[in-house]
Amino acid sequence: MERLDKLLAATGRWSRREVKQLVRQGQVLVNGVPAASAEEKYDPASAAFTVCGQPLTLRRHTYVLLHKPAGVLTATEDRRQPTVLELLPPELRRIDLAPVGRLDKDTEGLLLLTNDGELTHRLLSPRYHVDKRYLARVDGDLSPADVSAFAAGMTLPDGLVCLPAGLELLPQPRTCIVTLREGKFHQVKRMLAACGAPVLYLKRLSMGPLALPDDLPPGAYRLLTDEEISALYRVCAM
Fold first, then answer.
1. Pick the catalytic residue: 104, 141, 146, 215?
2. Is 104 a catalytic residue?
3. 23: burial class by Cβ within 10 Å (0-12, 13-18, 19+)?
4. CA angle 88, 129, 183 (to 5 degrees)
């Protein structure tokens, strides 16, 4: 059971103050009846909510898929440089969303933001084998021997021990797909550099069952669908 103002504010569409105003105006219905107070408690799994005439599906957590552009920090705040949260509207910035993992400033692609701490932990844990796929363009030639080295699990010159990973050489010159099930600091760049192929361009294409939509331009975002959320939960055994 949660307070009505907390439930509606968690969608990122309204602040608690705005919810209270909507309730006073009779714009919030619960099970077809105007809510008497924003402080009333309801079970979001069993109650039916309507706001301003529109049915509303409530979830305890929020899940945002962002196409991160290059030049933006994967952080919740920074005094000097723009962050990924600044790409979101105010109603989503006020509900404690955080990035799932990290993309370097010059890396673009799929970034999931959520306030679901347990899902975040499992998506990033090697224990659950959630693959992350990246498209890379490199300054150097890769070979089948490098593919074998990735598959065997590399130990880098700086001592970093990497789990077995995927390296797919594409027909385009000096272009490849890297698949990891972990996410150590600068790992894709460090592994490719160890093969004599420094990264020039890097883009995350997918995380588990979640793929970057072709029609979502850099800097744009959308909420996950119920089907996408369920797929993430399945892959993380939740």
1. 104
2. yes
3. buried
4. 55
235 touches 209 (CB < 8 A): yes
pLDDT tens by residue, 78-130 = 889 999 999 998 878 877 899 999 999 999 999 999 999 999 999 988 888 89
Distance from C-alpha of 72 to C-alpha of 82, rounded to nearest angstrom: 6
Q: Which residues pair with 206 in a beta bridge?
A: 133, 211
pTM above 0.70, yes or no: yes
Between the alpha carbon of residue 32 and those of residues 29, 47, 54, the distances in Å are: 5, 10, 12
Instruction: For residue 67, give its domain range.
Output: 63-125+209-235
Per-residue pLDDT, 212: 97
Tell me which H or E stretch contains 67.
strand 63-68
In angstroms, how far is CA 223 from the centroid of its own chain? 10
Q: Residue 93 belongs to a domain with what CATH number?
A: 3.30.70.580
Distances (CA, A) of 112 to 8, 40, 237: 21, 32, 18
Overall number of domains in the chain:
3
